[in-house]
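Notes from the 1:1 (GR / supervisor)

We went over the backlog. Supervisor wanted to see one worked example end to end before approving the batch request, so GR pasted a single chain during the call. The sequence is below; no edits were made to it. Supervisor asked that the structure be written out right there so they could see what the output format looks like.
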Amino acid sequence: MKNSELCFRRMTLADIRWVMKVEREVYQFPWTDKIFNDCIRVGYYCWIALQQQKIVGHAVISVTAGESHMLNLSIAREHQRKGYGRQFIEFLIDEARERNAQTMLLEVRPSNAAAISCYNSAGFNEIGCRKDYYPASEGREDALLFARHISQTADLHNS
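Structure output shown during the call:
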């Protein structure tokens, strides 16, 4: 690991202003502040990653019926390619596992090669495609659907 370990805390409404700066920086079609407000309000697991007391990223997962869905994972541009995304993923998997999730799903743009590489290195496998899922400059872009089994027994077999 190139840098020290990250610390994590639950996202608050006060964090949304910073979260929106990162969203606009890293996505052509960012989530809105209303989406983050709603995620916090309905009880999704919304997290902030910190490195030496500085916020470096945020994430949102849902967990229900033994399944977790990574809805958003964003690392500020200046903190990308330092291993923080991978650390955040492992933290989110642990959180989902504690809530009895057996599997974690996520969608990613086929054009996001860096994220795909990170998800592959974290043990995710492509399991499908969602046609016309994302807004794009010219119409819509598909989403690749990835999954990873995260139950304790699945991880024991992968060790």
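Supervisor's comment: The helical segments are 16-26, 33-42, 84-98, 113-121, 152-158.
Batch request approved.
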